[in-house]
Fold this sequence. Notes:
The radius of gyration is 15 Å and the shape is globular. By secondary structure, it is mainly alpha-helical. Helices cover 48% and strands 7% of the residues. It has a 3-stranded parallel sheet with strand order 1-2-3, sandwiched between helices. It has helices spanning 13-23, 40-50, 65-69, 74-90, 108-125, 153-173; strands at 58-61, 94-98, 128-130.
Amino acid sequence: MTAGYGLTEDQGLTALLQRKIDEMGYRYRVENHGILGDTSAGGVSRIDWALEEDPVKFLILELGGNDGLRGLPIADMKKNLAEIIERTQARRVTVILAGMEAPPNMSEEYTSEFRQVYRDLAKKYKLTLIPFLLEGVAGNREMNQSDGIHPNAAGEKVMTENVWRELEPLLLKN
């Protein structure tokens, strides 16, 4: 979701979040390392590289949606996300975990276990959790592009507010 599929650069989460940070007078720079279609396994392969940029203070970890779309094993996703969290925390970076939901066409058991992964990881690693990044966007035709999956510009604004609610209190402490 952070890759901003189908949008101009200034309409995506990264630009919108940067604008909010700037408007509030915080001195942080938002970098986007999201890759369209990526899975949690792809995130594991890139996390060390992503953390080598300028000093990283926060990581908004938003992965797993494509694992769910592909029906990949939940245990693998959980292991991958845990590895990303552990590597990130080892560098003293604060992780904000953005939860996703499995598509409704998956079994009830799969969707329930998928949702629980984010809660379990947030509890285990003492993370700030955005329960569902697409709250207010998913399933709403007015907030999504024609594919019904990716947020449009209006949906990106709602998604940005979902992140901001959890991020701003952390910025105030630093």
